[in-house]
Amino acid sequence: MNNFSPNMIKTYQACPKKYYFQYVENINVPKSAVPFEKGKKIHALANYYLQKIKIDRIETALTGAEHEIWELLKQNPFYNMECVKSEFALSIKLGYLSPENDCASYWLGGRLDALVHSGGDYFILDYKTGSIPKNPRYDPQTMVYLLCADRYLKDYNLLSFVYIDLKNKQNHVIEFNSVLKTQYEQELYKICTQITSDSLYKCNPEFCKFCEFNKICRR
Length: 219
Prior knowledge:
Elements: E1 2-4, H1 6-14, H2 16-24, H3 34-50, H4 56-60, H5 64-75, E2 82-97, E3 103-118, E4 121-128, H6 140-153, E5 158-165, E6 170-175, H7 178-197
Helix pairs in contact: 1-2, 1-6, 3-5, 6-7
């Protein structure tokens, strides 16, 4: 049985060779944490706020730009809904019968920024201080999180994934339905099967220029 996160799937889709270095060989290449500091602060603050933890002192430590982003999030209508849970992990087992009648199974999961609701309508929130995915409806994070929440909730009127785009001050909402559920299960199963059966892990040259493994990759 294999475990996969949305990041693992996205890495493989971008470049199988990078996936090999990062998740098979477990090679760690030091990267600057500076580009991620703003996002980490906002996510931590958002989690404390939803858990009703006093955050006055933390807010005073924010820079001007960070404070502006934080105020945008606090004013967002989705963020002001009733919180079910924040920063919590969910997983789902995905498996189908193979032609040989053996069930190939994969565990998929991740950590949701927040799950909120208004009556019987539930929304997975993902705060983005940077860019949102190019194709959010079929991004691995969207697919995995919606399938996990669908299994977790069991009974609801509406389930949606909301990318809160703080950079562009927009909300991108993907409503879940039975058609998407089938598509997501089939697509994720196909990708996971490709990963587990891959023995070559070919390099995708499109990503070489910005890849942290380009100095050790022999293409």
